[in-house]
Design goal:
Structural class of chain B: mainly beta
Shape of chain A: globular
Structural class of chain A: mainly beta
Helix content of chain A: under 10%
Oligomer: heterodimer
Largest interface: A-B, 27 and 27 residues
Radius of gyration of chain A: 13 Å
Distance between the termini of chain B: 36 Å
Number of strands of chain B: 11
Number of strands of chain A: 11
Order of helices and strands of chain B: EEEEEEEEEEE
Radius of gyration of chain B: 13 Å
Largest sheet of chain A: 6 strands, mixed
Largest sheet of chain B: 7 strands, mixed
Shape of chain B: globular
Strand content of chain B: over 45%
Order of helices and strands of chain A: EEEEEEEEEEE
Chain lengths: ~110, ~120
């Protein structure tokens, strides 16, 4: 059974720091891995989708990497800003299904 | 540019009552999903649909029912509300299924309390 874990559960950093959020999964048979952002009281917004054949994806200050063989993904946020404060969730799309399995998220706070 | 719209935003139910959570999308997406999110937990899939007239169970379907009579709408029905169904419910849609690497679009959620 596919399980997705995110460490740390919470992170607080000063503005301007570069930071890394971690996601691990137990079964490497995936179609893709997605990173989402969730603001309090809101739904999830898709940030990046990495296909199983890809190593990384970039969008602005965000860079997500995927190492399928080791079951790991990282989300790198460069030059963090207070506006980056949110919960970040990763999810894997298990091969052979249309279902996303979510991690429990990392709650990020960036203070001025 | 509505995307995925969920109603209501908040609801309080008494044990044993019934209700329907509404979800509609205007992106002509084939795939639609219902998730629940409990505090400190990830999202759990309740039901999903790959097109009008087709639905299937997710990880936690007990106590819920769905229907998909049109491409746009995917309502979630709670028949006999129980305290364990207190949660935030999210509807999502995607153009195609997982194998085609289509990102999910989420609604803003319905916060349900059963007392």
């Amino acid at each position: 059974k596919q399980e997705v874990t995110q460490i740390p559960a919470a992170l607080s950093v000063p503005e301007g720091e570069n930071l890394v959020l971690n996601c691990s999964f137990t079964d490497s048979a995936i179609y893709n891995l997605q990173w989402f952002r969730q603001d309090p009281g809101k739904g999830l917004t898709s940030l990046l989708l990495i296909q199983s054949s890809q190593r990384e994806q970039t969008s602005g200050r965000l860079n997500a990497s995927l190492d399928k063989s080791s079951g790991r993904s990282t989300l790198y946020i460069a030059a963090s800003q207070p506006g980056d404060s949110a919960t970040y969730l990763c999810a894997v799309n298990a091969r052979g299904t249309d279902k996303l399995i979510f991690g429990t998220g990392t709650r990020l706070q960036v203070f001025p | 540019n509505a995307g995925v719209t969920q109603t209501p935003k908040f609801r309080i139910l008494k044990i044993g009552q019934s209700m329907t959570l509404q979800c509609t999308q205007d992106m002509n997406h084939n795939y639609m999903y219902w998730y629940r999110q409990d505090p400190g937990m990830g999202l759990k899939l309740i039901y999903y649909s790959v097109g009008a007239g087709i639905t299937d169970k997710g990880e936690v379907p007990n106590g819920y029912n769905v229907s998909r009579s049109t491409t746009e709408d995917f309502p979630l029905r709670l028949e006999l509300a129980a305290p364990s169904q207190t949660s935030v419910y999210f509807c999502a849609s995607s153009e195609v299924g997982g194998g085609y690497n289509s990102p999910l679009h989420f609604g803003n959620g319905t916060r349900l309390t059963v007392t």
